[in-house]
Amino acid sequence: MKFFVDTADVQAIRELHDLGMVDGVTTNPSLILKSGRDIIEVTREICAFVEGPVSAEVVALKAEDMIAEGRKLAEIAPNIAVKVPLTWDGLKTCKVLSGEGRMVNVTLCFSANQALLAAKAGATFISPFIGRLDDINLDGLELIQDIRTIYDNYDFKTQILAASVRTVNHAKDCALLGADVMTAPPAVIKSMANHILTDKGLEQFMKDWAQTGQKIL
Ligand code: E4P
Question: Which of 19, 40, 146, 151 is most deeply packed, by most CB within 10 A?
Answer without folding.
Answer: 151
